[in-house]
Amino acid sequence: MGGGGAVAVNEPDGSRIAVVPGGERWQVTVSGAGLVVTSPSGWVSPRLEAISLAAIDPRAPLWVDGKAYRGVGEVLRDRTGLTIVNRLGMESYLLGVVSAEMGHRSSAEQAALQAQAIVSRTYALRNLRRWRALGFDLYGTVSDQAYGGVAAETAEGRAAVAETRGQVLTYDGAVVEAFYFSTCGGRTAEGFEVFRGAVRPYLRSMSDVNERGSAYCSISPRYRWREEWSGEALRATLQRNLPPVPGTVSPSIVTVTDLRVTQRSSSGRVDQVSIGLGATEVKVDGHTRIRQLLRLPSGQLLRSTAFSMSTTGAGQAVTRLVIDGAGAGHGVGLCQWGAVGRARAGQGYQQILAAYFPGTRLERRY
Q1: Considering the entire predicted model, what is its pTM?
Q2: Strand order in 82-87's β-sheet?
């Protein structure tokens, strides 16, 4: 911690432990069941259960590990090491989310940022205390929402948060499940296709094209894509990622004799694939499992399940697999690149949200 302005190091009850001068970097490390703070000069604090960090100047950001954050920080001892929690108000939190999720957008795309601000606020309110057993509300990653602190903020993102302050999406008076993702490829997915049990009237599959028949998200760099595997690369991928079949011994993959789509969802996405392993056939179903099964060599999930596949050598030994895909992400709710395309077409954030969450209402909760 440190590297910017001076930082107060306190116990959770507010008792002052030390002050980190501006420009210095101090360390917090695990010590047994607690934490200790160490200065560059060698001063070591008593062992502490938790630590609170706050900028001495209330107008200045808090600096942790060379990055600036609004609000205060808490360092907690967890089962494997330590967790750093940034505690701040909802609107300040959103400042670090909107542009982290949407990137730098022009003033002509402001409606997309406004829509993202409302969806992110809705998601956060719906999921408050989701991880309270771990000591925080939300992860700052795609496990919940990307959050980059002050460095992720842009003037346009800050304006979008201010312009939509307190607004959320509701259905029958309740805050909705506000899912979102990168690129739909021209059609969104039903909620229950991806999130089993998420049968919601506002999470519908919809064609996301304009009056000329072009997808609003066709501007996305992930609108269309292709991935290829050699026979050996495919065998290694399946050996690494094929989930175990309950009640059976996982087969050793020597030869892949077939790989084909055997079921699609109502939005046309792949919902089941069948893998031939000699005399054994294994079926893998579900959006998440299929994307995990066909992870790329980099470890990245397959971009989406909106794809077609072709194989060479099926029936004997597959020597090549080609997947032609559309979009990126799970496909449920707001298509972020679609929102950008709609904003460029002149749609306001109200119209964008009505398209992706039909039947919902915009309400100001504070």
Answers
A1: 0.91
A2: 16-20, 7-10, 50-55, 72-77, 82-87
